[in-house]
């Protein structure tokens, strides 16, 4: 069973590799979810299955290619981890760059992500789409 720190490390590595199935495998069967849709048009809140988590990341990776991921700070307290960082994405349809800061909170229990809150800079994404 992975520790919270190990789950965060694997999560960031799989995010950098754009590995949606791998990210989903880190999750519990049901994840309490709060994150904007990949296009930033609305927020998704509530429980998500592993398949829904995988689909969310597949949609994200289909629309954006990750150029750079930087975790500025990771704070772990027991089963909770807060990540603060930035990412540079490229819009696949246009090639336009998107630089976005983010904060994410993961709650880990028995080596699985049970809660995921992702708070990206949706204004940066919206400006690119405009």
Q: What this model shows, in words?
A:
This protein has 130 residues and is an alpha+beta fold. It has four helices and six strands. The chain has helices at 4-16, 20-25, 50-63, 122-129, and strands spanning 27-36, 43-49, 64-77, 80-91, 97-109, 112-120. It has a six-stranded mixed β-sheet with strand order 2-1-6-5-4-3. A hairpin with a 2-residue loop joins strand 3 and strand 4 (80-91). The longest helix is centred in the middle third of the chain and has 14 residues, at 50-63. The protein is globular, with a radius of gyration of 14 Å. The termini are far apart.
Describe the secondary structure blueprint for this structure:
Layout: H1 4-16, H2 20-25, E1 27-36, E2 43-49, H3 50-63, E3 64-77, E4 80-91, E5 97-109, E6 112-120, H4 122-129
Parallel strand pairs: 1-6
Antiparallel strand pairs: 1-2, 3-4, 4-5, 5-6
Key terms:
globular, 130 residues, 50% strand, alpha+beta, 4 helices
Low-confidence stretches: none
For the biggest sheet, the summary is: 6 strands, mixed
* Number of separate strands: 6
Strand content: over 45%
Rough outline: globular
- In DSSP terms, counting alpha (H) and pi (I) runs of 4 or more, how many helices? 4
Q: Encode the helix/strand succession as letters.
A: HHEEHEEEEH
Mean pLDDT: 91
In short:
The protein is an alpha+beta fold and 130 residues long. The chain has helices at residues 4-16, 20-25, 50-63, 122-129, and strands spanning 27-36, 43-49, 64-77, 80-91, 97-109, 112-120. A hairpin with a 2-residue loop joins β3 and β4 (80-91).
């Amino acid at each position: 069973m992975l520790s919270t720190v190990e789950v965060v490390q694997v999560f960031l590595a799989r995010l950098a590799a754009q590995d949606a199935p791998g990210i989903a495998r880190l999750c519990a069967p049901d994840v309490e979810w709060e994150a904007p849709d990949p296009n930033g048009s609305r927020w998704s809140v509530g429980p998500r299955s592993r398949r829904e988590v995988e689909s969310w990341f597949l949609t994200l990776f289909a629309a954006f290619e990750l150029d750079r991921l930087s975790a500025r700070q990771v704070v772990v307290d027991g089963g909770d981890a807060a990540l603060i960082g930035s990412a540079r994405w490229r819009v696949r349809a246009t090639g336009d760059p998107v630089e976005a800061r983010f904060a994410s909170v993961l709650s880990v229990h028995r080596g699985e992500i049970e809660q995921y809150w992702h708070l990206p800079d949706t204004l940066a994404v919206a400006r690119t789409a405009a």
